[in-house]
Amino acid sequence: MLGQLAAWHERVVDGTHYNGEDGRGDGATGTVTTAAELHRAAAAFDAASAALREAHAANGVVRWYDDPQ
Question: Which domain of life is it from (predicted)?
Answer without folding.
Answer: Bacteria
